[in-house]
Amino acid sequence: MMENTYVPFLSEIKEVIKHTAIEYTFRMTYEGEVKPGQFFEVSIPKYGEAPISVSGIGEGTVDLTIRRVGRVTNEVFERYVGDRLFLRGPYGNGFDIDNYKDKELVVIAGGTGLSPVKGIVDYFAAHPQEKKNMTLVAGFKTPNDILFVEDFAKWKKAMDVILTVDCAEGDTSCQIGLVTQYIPQIRLDVVQEAVAIVVGPPMMMKFTVQGLLDRGFQEENIWISYERKMCCGLGKCGHCKIQDRYVCLDGPVFNYTEGKNLID
Amino acid sequence: MGYQLNEEGFNAMLSELTKEYLIYAPKCYQGGNTFSDTDCIRYGEIRRAEDIVFDRKSDYSFKEVLLPVSETLFYFTEEQVKEADVPRKKGAVIFLRSCDLHAVKRLDDMYLKNGPADYYYRRLRENVKFVLMGCAVSFDNCFCGDMGSDQADNYSVSVDKKGDFYYLDCKDEAFAEILKALPHAELEVAPCHVTENKVKVNIPDHLDASIAKSTMWDEYDTRCIACGRCNFVCPTCTCFTMQDLFYSENGKVGERKRVWASCMVDGFTDVAGGGTYRRKNGERMRFKVLHKVWDYKERNGYHMCVGCGRCDDICPEYISFSNCINKLEKAMEEVSES
To answer: Domains in chain A, start-ordered, CATH in brackets?
Structure first.
């Protein structure tokens, strides 16, 4: 009998980390292979399923950073440590860490776009000997929207970190402005060989990639991750299709040479 | 091997088949169509020859036999999950035309090969036999010839009704055993097929993503009303949405289903937090048309559209898909000039 890939399994909430009023990380029990940038279908019976990317990988756990913006996620926020959620996955290709090892790496993330790439940042923060120069540029709307505040403190010890907000609202602890304006000041020795990951809202990704190309990055050295509505995660439901690619199977991570020509 | 049967013999074959199979064929649902007092031809279970509509194109395709409009995947009782039983306990015999038989390959490739094989599709796909209904002439809006789906040979039996007789070509041993036991005449039979369509399509072989910039899509912004009927009648459209349903009498018990979805309808691409792709109906038309005659082929090596023309038949705004295909050549010229 073949496997029924639609039936979810139960996973227990081990910890809830609050970032903002509407964004929490749920640390869930999970045993198995998983890569940064992959996603799970998280569900609560009666409310439905939602694709959530993996924002951290621990021993026997995965972190799911969830924004309270819909029917399923509203209900997830009613749950706490010890409660259980249904999961399916992981799905998608995820980031291949080998693409970034022993290279100069720039990670640029906008808002919750930091979640899918956070596993990569964590990895190099924990294995500094496997990287050369590394810069994380993370942009949020306001200081109140900043995610992973405690992690930033750790990351700052291992890499260059530029934390910027669109609007500081009187807070002086972070920089102001869009992520794109910090691209020129990223420390790089040989830009032609440097690699970059860009994740965020569509417009942010478009202008950030342009900024990197202007800086001298090679197209094939840039990776992006797309957010789409992945209903099944199995290449069937069609909601995440872009041209001849299924974001749930072929993505969500695409090399820019592949991703740049895809039109929704 | 070919057989000639009279109606009695054909009915005897059907009743023999019903022992092991449910038989699905185009049926007439009186008064069931979009306009008042018009009949709808769609698939249903049949038992006798007179239930089968031979002389009209079915408004909807066979696909709901393999891919129910709404399919329960499993039931929830608090934290327990129970897989839904197979909706069909017997095998299935499906009467369909050549275009639709070609569409089966598209469904198979999507559900069995694009990513992991689909559990629910596979269990309905098992033990299915296809009966090819010959097409003596092309129906309105058909363009099977240009899509290469006017002939098919991967059937168990073909059937053509001529006058009071049924002419069958049999390729399946189980069917042959049934047929041989009935009063019949043996003769050479080749299923009828369309040799000429009024509608012709020309799919440019140099399509690329730049065609999205063409102004040809703009007219559909206003003409198309994003109702999704074209997707639901299409034998090759396969999209669905997951849906949870709970019983009002007991809020702790419910089910998860998948229901047909349409890339033309609002909400298809919506992501949490308000993001959406393809807001304009023209963009959705472009997405659908290019999937059928361009990007599906890029992925799978052959075109998705089988030229059944049902999308043209059903559209309440009289939008013609084949017409749209025929505008692609000019649109490519337009974008290559700019």
So the answer is: 9-91 (2.40.30.10), 97-225 (3.40.50.80)
Residues of A in contact with B78 (CB under 8 A): 45
Buried b (16+ CB within 10 A) or exposed e, A177-202: ebbbebbeebebeebeebbbbbbbee
User: Mind listing the pLDDT tens digit for each residue in B173-200?
Assistant: 999 999 999 988 889 999 999 999 999 9
Mean pLDDT of chain B: 94
Beta-carbon separation of A10 and B263 below 8 A: no
Tokens of B234: 């299409």
- Look up residue A147 and give its two tokens: 């995610």
- Given a cut of 90, whether residue A173 has pLDDT beyond it is no
Instruction: Pick the residue from chain A with its C-alpha nearest to B239.
Output: A237
Inter-chain touch A232–B244, beta carbons under 8 Å: no
Smallest Cα distance from B223 to chain A, Å? 21
- Residue the block writes with tokens 């229901």: B259
8 Å CB contact of A238 and B261: yes
CA geometry: angle at A229 spanning B203 and B74, to 5°? Answer: 105
Select from B72, B245, B277 the residue whose CB has the most chain A CBs within 10 Å, as the one to mutate to test that interface: B277
Longest CA pairwise span in chain A (Å): 61
**Cis amide leading into A90 (omega within 30):** yes
Residue type, A259: G
Which ipTM was obtained for this model?
0.93
Q: Give the model confidence (pLDDT) of B269-283 as tens digits.
A: 988 878 889 999 999
- Could B240 and A47 be called an inter-chain contact, meaning their C-beta atoms sit closer than 8 Å? no
pLDDT digits (tens, 9 = 90+) for A180-231: 999 999 999 999 999 999 999 999 999 999 999 999 999 999 999 998 999 9
Which residues of chain A have a CB within 8 Å of the CB of B80? none
Does the pLDDT of residue B48 top 70, yes or no?
Answer: yes
Residue A88: what pLDDT? 96
B298 interfacial to chain A (CB closer than 8 Å): yes
Query: B266: distance to nearest CA of chain A, Å?
Result: 12
Let me know the angle formed at the C-alpha of A197 by A192 and A203, rounded to the nearest 5 degrees: 110
Rounded to whole angstroms, how far apart are CA atoms A161 and A155?
7
- Distance from the Cα of B82 to chain A's closest Cα (Å) equals 9
Close Cβ partners of A221 (under 8 Å, ≥ 6 residues apart): A193, A194, A195, A196
Task: Tell me the shortest Cα–Cα distance from A14 to chain B, in angstroms.
Answer: 18
Taking the whole predicted model, whether its pTM rises above 0.90 is answered as yes
B269, A264: Cβ pair inside 8 Å? yes
Sign, CA torsion A11/A13/A19/A24? positive
Q: Among the residues of chain A, which ranges form H helices? A: 71-76, 114-126, 149-158, 202-215, 247-250, 256-259
> Looking at CA atoms only, how far is residue B117 from chain A in angstroms?
9
Does B260 contact chain A (CB < 8 Å)?
no
Report helix, strand or coil for A204.
helix
